[in-house]
Every structure is written in structure tokens, then in C-alpha cells.
Amino acid sequence: MTAMLEQTPNRLKDISAALHSGTLLQSRLMLNGLHPAEIASLLESLPLEQRELVWELVDAEHEGDVLLYVNDAVRANLIRQMETHELVAAAEGLATDDLADILQDLPETVIREVLQSMDAQDRQRLESVMSYPEDTAGGLMNTDTITLRADVTIDVVLRYLRRRGELPETTDKLFVVNRDDKYQGLISLTDLLTHAPTMTISEIMRYDNEAIPATLSGKEVANLFQQHDLVSAPVIDTGGRLLGRITIDDVVDLIRDEAERSVMNMAGLPDEQDMFAPVITSTRRRAVWLGVNLLTALFASWVIGLFDATIEKMVALAILMPVVASMGGVAGTQTQTLVIRGMALGQIGGANARRLLTKELAIGAMNGLIWAVVLSLVTTAWFDSYQLGAIIGAAIIINLIFAALVGVSLPLLLRKLGIDPALAGGVVLTTFTDVIGFIAFLGLATIFLI
Questions:
Q1: 142: β partners
Q2: 3-state SS string over 335-360?
Q3: SS3 call for 48
Q4: Would strands 173-177 and 232-236 be described as parallel, antiparallel, or unpaired?
Q5: Do 185 and 147 meet the contact criterion of CB atoms below 8 Å apart?
Q6: At what angle are helices 36-44 and 48-57 packed, to 10 degrees?
Q7: How far apart are the first and last CA of the chain?
Q8: CA dihedral over 199, 203, 209, 214, signed as positive or negative
Q9: In this structure, how many other beta carbons lie within 10 angstroms of the beta carbon of residue 196?
């Protein structure tokens, strides 16, 4: 696996070099020798004109899988280049859960043709997956499962599997249902192969493995897989009927997407950003966030303006203001990052939020005291004013305590309001710590120095 990871960037580099040299036949052979995920990575890394050329070189049998791996923005661009019959062929080669992921991105005519080409059972499976939101267990599940009855023998099951000839990918267990398809338990392939053929499934099946409700959120699904070291898990509806299964590869994709979404949201960018999108499109998307940031910056400047007379009388205040704001911003970001991570892992709730707040306030106070002493000594030596040193020390303590308060409470408040803390938390937190720092520092200076 390590060798494969090391080879991938080199192979992508070789293909790019072949494209630049104009050897299209060599480029086609090298390109289609890659895994679809690697082809997708190459497409995302290319400017639009080169991307169109490379996409023409991808074999039709790989197009569906490549569309699945590229991000939404790039996928939409590639779909616009494809003919209807090409899109239908690409979609028909996908598994049900994969098809559900991209079906809504396809034109209406293509969707109708794909649905008409499916048999009744596959169409019902697809509708089952698409009836649930994408970020739930139902939206993540794969309907390709193997089910058993509890009263059959192991020998019967093994003969059935041999006749079947193959198992769905990432199959480590089979699911036991009754005649109404209600989930009863599961049996691992290891148990199936290591017990006597005359034993019945009911004798070796496990009843303690609870199925995942189809409405469970994707984050909670990921936590379950991580906590219980699962490779696959059954998904049931509200009536206990088995709908499908979730596999570890789907969970890995989910975790990766969540990580990318958090990083992009912190910069105020769309979840799926095309690195080589047209300039106008990218400018429009970023302008909104820059506008929000401008408003918060103007608010902080307005607060400073309230103390313009104080600053005019003592230039040292203007020199030291960024220090107070920066210390509060860093302290608040540390706390907020810890809280957002805890919320994502399901470790923070109403039962322990108050204890966490108390702890963070104590940390803020202690760090404030430590760095207040340091900064007071530096300021006193620099400007030869112990009063200014004492004031900036007090401002640091106040700002770090309030930074801890906001760092804990803001993500919890945003979650209650249905807003992603990673998207809005950074700007609000920075504005708050800047304003509190300026008010504390300049306010104390106005009272005691001017």
C-alpha cells in the first residue's frame, strides 16, 4: 500500500508530461491504467482546457466511476460535455448507492432513460436509497446485500453461495431476516466457514449487533464504525425491515468529505470548489465571505474610533493594540477548535457543556495571568511606564477569559441555530475577541492614563 501511495504522484506527473509532449496514444494508455480515483484527482488538478482534453481520453467503461470520484463542481462541468447516450452508459455501470450519489446531477432526459433501463427490483432499490437525505445512513447504504433465514443449515448457505459465484464488495458478514424481511441478527463469514455444516444459522448467529436506523446522521454512523471497528453494518427502517448495508469504504469517503467541508467552510468557500473554475465564478463565490469579513472589520474599527482621542494622546496604545487582539484571537480559536472537534465526535452535550465551560474559563484566566505578567514587564521596560504595563496586563486577562467564554458557547449556540460552527464561528469569534480586547485596553487607558 505504501508503495502504491508513493507511485501515484509520479504516475500522475508522467501522464501530465505525456500530455504536454503531445503523445495522445501514450497518454490514453497511461491514463486508463490508473484507478478511477486517480483519474479524478488528475482531472481536478488540470486547468479547464487540459481537463476537457484528458476527459476525451478516458475510456467509456471508466467514465461512471470517475464521475463518482470528482467533486461536484468538476462533475457538473464534465457532464455538460457529455452526450445523452454517454451519460446513460456511464450511469448504468454504477452500483445502486453510487448511482444515487450522482443521479440528481444528471439531466432529466438521462435520468428518465436510466430509470427505464432498470428492472423493477433495481429501481425500487434506487428509490429506497434516494428517499433518505444524502448525509444519513439511508443515503449512504448499499442495497446489494445477502440475506439468510435463521432455520437453514450452514451447508445450505454454503451451497447457495457457491452457486451465486460472487459476493458483494466488502462483505464480511451476512444478515439474517425473517419472512417479512425484518432484521434478526448476523453471521460473520468466519463463523460460517469454521462451524459444522449441519449446524443451523440460528445456532451461530449473533443477536447483540444492533442495526443502524436509516435516519441516523452520517456523523453518528462514522462514530459507530470507529468505536466498534466495523467493516459493514445493516441498515433498517422504522419497522425493523432490512434496507441495505453500509460499508467501511462509504464511511471513509464520508469522513474525507466532512474534513474537506470543514476546511473549506472555515475559509467561507463552497463545499465543492473547482480549483480551476472561471475567474468570474470564483470571484463571486469569495466576494460574499469577504463582504461579511469587511462588515466585522468595520465594526471593530468603529470601536477603535470611539477612543480616537485617547490614542492621539498616547501613541503607544496604537502600537500595543494588535498584541491584545491577537492574544485573544489565538486563545479563542484554540478553545473553539477543541469544542467543534468534540461536537463532531459526539463528546459534548448538555450534560458536560457547563463543566467544559468552567474548565476553559479557568485555563483562560491562568494563561491570561501568566502572559499578563510577561507582557506587563515587556511594556514597562519598552515604554518606561508601569501604569501602561499594568493596563495591558489587565486587558490580556480580560480578553483571554472572554475568549474562552465565546470559544465554548459560540459553537454550541450556532449548532442550536442550525448553523455550521466551522463556517461562521471563525469570523464571529475573531470579531468578538478584537472588540473586547480593544474596549478593555483602550477603556482602561482612558480611565487611568488620560
A1: 245
A2: HHHHHHHHHHCCCCCCCCHHHHHHHH
A3: helix
A4: unpaired
A5: no
A6: 160
A7: 68
A8: positive
A9: 10
In this structure, how many other beta carbons lie within 10 angstroms of the beta carbon of residue 365?
Answer: 15
Distances, alpha carbon 394 to alpha carbons 123, 254, 323, 397, 411, in Å: 67, 45, 13, 5, 27
C-alpha cell at 255: 469522513
DSSP per-residue codes, 108-119: HHHHHHHHHHS-
17-73 residue pLDDT tens: 777 776 777 778 888 888 888 888 888 888 887 888 889 889 988 888 999 888 888
Grid coordinates representing 166 are 460472487
SS percent in the chain: helix, strand, coil, step 5: 70, 10, 20
The CA-based angle 122-127-129, given to 5 degrees, is 95
Looking only at the bridges linking them, the beta strands covering 232-236 and 242-247 are antiparallel
> 409, 354 in Cβ contact below 8 A?
no
**pTM of this prediction?**
0.68
CA angle (43, 44, 50) in 5-degree steps:
50
How many CA atoms does the CB half-sphere of 12 hold within 13 Å?
Answer: 18
pLDDT per residue as tens digits for the range 193-243: 999 999 999 999 988 677 999 999 988 898 889 888 899 999 999 999 999
